Structures are given as structure tokens and as C-alpha cells.
Amino acid sequence: MGMGTAMAEAVADAAGVYRLMTWLTASFPVGAFSYSHGLEWGVEDGTIRTVDALVAWVDDLLALGSGWNDAVLAAAAWRASAAGDWTGLAEVAELAAALTPTAERRLESLSQGRAFAAAIASAWPCEAVDRLKAIGGDLAYPVAVGAVAAGHGLSLPATLLGYLHGFVGNLVSAALRLVPLGQTDGQRALARLEPRVLATAARAALSTLDDLGGAAWVADIASMNHETQYTRLFRS
Amino acid sequence: MPDAASHLAVLPPASRLQRLEGRVVLGVKADADGVTRLDRLYQSGSARLRLPKGPGLEGVLINTGGGLTGGDLMETEVVVAAGARATVTTQAAEKVYRASAGEALVLNRLAVAGRLDWLPQETILFDGARLCRRLEVEMAPDATLLAVEATVFGRTARGERVTHGLFRDDWRIRRGGRLVYADAVRLEGDIDAQLACATVAGGGRAVASCLYMAADAEARVEAARDLLCAGGVKAGASAWNGLLALRLVAPDGQTLLRALAPLIEFLRGMPVPRVWRC
User: Fold this and answer.
1) Distance, CA of A65 to CA of A76 (rounded, Å)
2) Is there a domain that residue B264 lies in?
3) Do A224 and B202 touch (CB under 8 A)?
4) Cis-peptide, bond into residue B120, ω within 30° of zero
5) How far is CA A132 from CA A1, A86, A91, A158, in A?
6) Residue A16 — very low, low, confident or very high, per pLDDT cuts 50/70/90?
7) Most buried one in B29, B134, B163, B234, CB count within 10 A?
8) B180 touches chain A (CB under 8 A)
9) CA–CA separation, B189 vs A211, rounded Å?
10) Please, are residues B107 and B171 in contact by the beta-carbon 8 Å criterion?
11) Does B278 touch chain A (CB under 8 A)?
């Protein structure tokens, strides 16, 4: 491989980083800041009062809950989209929507999925986002991200890392507002979660849909009970 | 000091050198008077179905092998035609023994045009058990389903902990051909350590998932929550698109079943199956 090719690939990688950082940052218009994924109830019932408890909660979701399942679904969507397998993509989309375990987690995932596809179609068009629109029906957020990232030629490991970084960043940010914790506590939490995020992204990059599965029952119950919470900042 | 009988109970019966297989197919339909009648019954291997006399059609599944271990396969298929109503339960709690090789497979396929209450008694995983369970449901758009699966990790009364094993529980529910609900539970390795995690079971060792799909599913969420509140377990309920999903986490099987029974009675408008009350 000549220097020219290596340089061209490095530039392409950098372009990929630019896109992922743009799409998966808190300012991308999907309304991520309005969802706590049930964490608000975990704070309300006293489970999450410290940085340690916050890190444990998010770490569990990555190892045994929705963080892992989202990464597996994003990977499956990425693969179907990269292969131009639009029937396969439709199946992943149907499964991902059916797997949302509560009304609010469903709202959180489907609203963001829809908003993500709309913003991409407007500012970052690609065939994959047109295909998602043609498939119609419920579009879960990880499926939208995985399909679009492949449509833009972004690598699967980078896509999963970007998705999980957004997932973790949003939960930590919600916790800073709710517990409350200081900005430095938030950074400590993110630093401590880095190994799990990297490991989960790497594991999910090699996964198939048969690897779906977790057991974060109490996190699901927290989301169910959040629906009954009297005073709340978040929609989930 | 465990006595000889309780020690033996840990092991699958000696006669169980052969891998166990069983299959039941039950079909029910409504007669001209709207009464639910048996339409078809097929049973093979170590699976049997009893249909005790009583109000309503209630099928009781029996595993004549007395439990499951790695390599075993149990299949149940239930077809409920339009206008018919049936309940299917199990004779006893299903015990899943330590697996020396492979996984126990439990495949349940339900096709519902009328109403089905799928109410097997709890499954108890012994330490070292490996179980893959799958629930596949095809529903007509206006059909009604109540499905409950309760799982207890270890014989909690004697302090048993599941420190190694596998538990997978996959639900795929289609209504009018569309996948509307799915669940993918997977715990592997030191299950007890994972149950201790705050987002998993917070140290609980018994869990139940419950799904009620009916025209009035969303209207019943508040009353279901009130019943759960009274149950002394960690639990929640949520409803959307004509389905009501519930999860319960309890310290042990007995506490779980005590909380579950009134909920089941509420959602089916009749008592729990008679075998549950033994």
C-alpha cells in the first residue's frame, strides 16, 4: 500500500469520526436530554445516590441490559445496511421495536430513531436513510444509527463505540441533574465506565442476533414505575 | 447435614441416562353452543396432558421424566380456535437439574384466535442447570392471551445458589402476523452474582414475566399496579398498543407466587388453576 492510499484512508477515517461525533453528540436534534431510561426512578427510590451507584447502574446496563442489546441491534442493522439487505434490515427494525420493554422506553427509542432518521435525511442524505423511510413502521434508535452509519461507510467498531458513548453520556448527564452530582463526579463516572464501553463495543462488533439478551429486570421495573412518578424532569 | 434423600434429589433419577424428549399438541375449538371442546390431542415421549373435569377447559402438562437436564427437549403446541377459551398449566414446578452436557430445550408454540391463559407453574433452576426456553405466539388481531413464566434460581428454601449455569428465555409474540412483543433474557455463568446487581434483581432469586394482550389491556394497568404494590415484591407494569407487560422480582419463589396469584386472578377473572393451589 502506497503512502497516498494510507493517507486517503486516514482522511476517510477522520471524516467518519467527524460524522459520528456530530450525530451522536447531545446537540444532535433527537431530544436525548429528555430521556433518563428509568434512571430518574432509580434516583427517586434511593438506589442511585452516589457516583459508585451510578457507575454500577450504567455498567450493568452495558453488561446485562439495554446497552448490550442496543449494541447488538445496531451491529445487525449496520451489517444488513452495509450488505444492501433491506429485508434483513426491516426484520432487525421490527425486532428492535418489539424488544422495548415498557411504554416509556419504547417512546425513548422510537422517538429518537424517528428524529435521527429525519435529521439525517435533511442534512446527511444517503440511500440507507431512504430505505429506512421506505421500510416504515417503528424505528428504534440503535437500528437507525447502525443503518445510517453503514450507509455512510463508517466502520462497525467506531459506530458501536459512538453509540455506546452517547448512551453512557446521556445517562451520566441525567444523573448529574437528578442526584445531584458535580461535573467532576460526572467525569469520574465516564472515566470509570470507559473500559466497559470499549469492551461492549468490541464484543458487539462480533455479535449476531442470537447474542441478544440480558436480565436487567429491575431497570425495566424502574422504567415502568417512572410512569407513575409524580414530579419528574424526564420523559422516561 | 443433608440426609440421603435430599442428596439424591440433587441428581437426575438414575433411569435418566437416556435423553428425554416429549411433545404435546393440544387443539381446542368452540362447538355450536360456544362451549370449548377438545379438537386434537397428541402426546409423545415423556410429555402428557391431563384434562381434568371442571368448569372451563384446563390442560395440565405433565413431565413424566420428573425434571429436565442438559440435552432434554420438551415441546408444547397449543391451538385455540376463534370463540374458544382454554387454560394450560403444569402439574408441578419444572425442575431443571445440573447439566453434564448441553442445554435443556423447552419450546412452546401457541396459536390463539380465541383466548388462552398460558400459566405453567414456576421453573426451578438447580445449580449448574442450563435451560433455553422459547415462547412463540401467533395471535389473531382480536385474540386474548395471558402468559406468565416464573423462574426461581436455586432451591431458595435450602439456601442453594446458582453459581454456574445458563438461563435463556426468548419470547416472540406476533399479532396479525406482526411482531409486537419480544423479550430476550440471558444469564450465564455465575448467575447468583449477576442477580445481586442492582439493575438485575438486587439480590432477588425469583422473577416472573407476565404479558396480557387483550382489548382491555391498557385499561387495566392502574389496577394491576395496585395489586403489585400490595405484593411486597419489586414489580412494575406498563401498557401500550393493546398489551400489558409486567415484571416481578422477589427474594424467593414463595414470595413471588404469593404476589403473582392475585394478579393472575385479576387478569383472567377467575381463580388460578387448581394445581397452583396444592
Assistant:
1) 17
2) no
3) no
4) no
5) 36, 8, 11, 21
6) confident
7) B234
8) yes
9) 15
10) no
11) no
CA distances A52 to A47, A166, A172, B112, Å, are: 11, 20, 12, 47
Q: What is the largest CA-CA distance in chain A?
A: 63
Residues B178, A175: Cα–Cα separation, whole Å: 36
Q: Cell numbers of A205, please?
A: 462488533
Question: Domain segments of chain A: what residues?
Answer: 41-226
**B181 contacts chain A (CB < 8 A):** yes
Chain B contact set for A57 (CB, 8 A): 198-199
C-alpha cell read off for B116: 388462552
For testing the chain B interface, which of A224, A227, A235 should be mutated: the one with the most B CBs within 10 Å? Answer: A224
Split into its structural domains, chain B has a count of: 1
**Could you give the CA distance from residue B27 to residue B40 in angstroms, rounded to a whole number?**
5
- DSSP lists the bridge partners of residue B85 as B115
Domain-embedded: residue B250 = no
A53 and B CB contact within 8 Å: yes
Q: Please compute the mean of the pLDDT values over residues A121-133 and round it to a whole number.
A: 97
pLDDT tens, position by position, B149-203: 999 999 988 899 999 999 999 999 999 999 999 999 999 999 999 999 999 999 9
* Residue B70 zone, left/alpha/beta (φ > 0; ψ -120 to 50; rest): beta
| ipTM reported for the complex, 2 dp | 0.94
Q: Do A217 and B235 touch (CB under 8 A)?
A: no
Which positions ≥6 away from B163 have C-beta within 8 Å?
B127, B190, B191, B192, B193
Among candidate residues A69, A34, A61, A48, the one with its CA nearest the CA of residue A168: A61
Retrieve residue A122's grid coordinates: 435533511
Task: Annotate B156-182 with three-state secondary structure.
Answer: HHHCCCCCCCEEEEEEEEEECCEEEEE
Q: Are A221 and B179 in contact (CB < 8 Å)?
A: no
Q: What is the rounded CA–CA span in Å between residue B201 and residue B214?
A: 28
As a whole number of angstroms, the distance between CA B71 and CA A235 comes to 45
Chain B contacts of A218, Cβ < 8 Å?
A: 198-202, 234, 249
Residue at B100 is within a domain:
yes
Q: In DSSP terms, which residues pair with B187 in a beta bridge?
A: B167
B-chain CB neighbours of A69 within 8 Å are 184
For residues B143 and B115, is the Cβ–Cβ distance under 8 A? yes
- Cell numbers found for residue B95: 425442575
AA identity, residue B226: D
CATH fold label, A41-226: Urease accessory protein UreF (1.10.4190)
- All residue ranges of chain B with pLDDT < 50 are 1-10, 14-15
Report d(CA A71, CA A165) in Å as an integer.
Answer: 11
Q: Reduced to 3 states, what is the DSSP secondary structure of residue B14?
A: coil
B194 touches A at CB < 8 Å: yes
Distance (Å) from the alpha carbon of A4 to chain B's nearest alpha carbon: 47
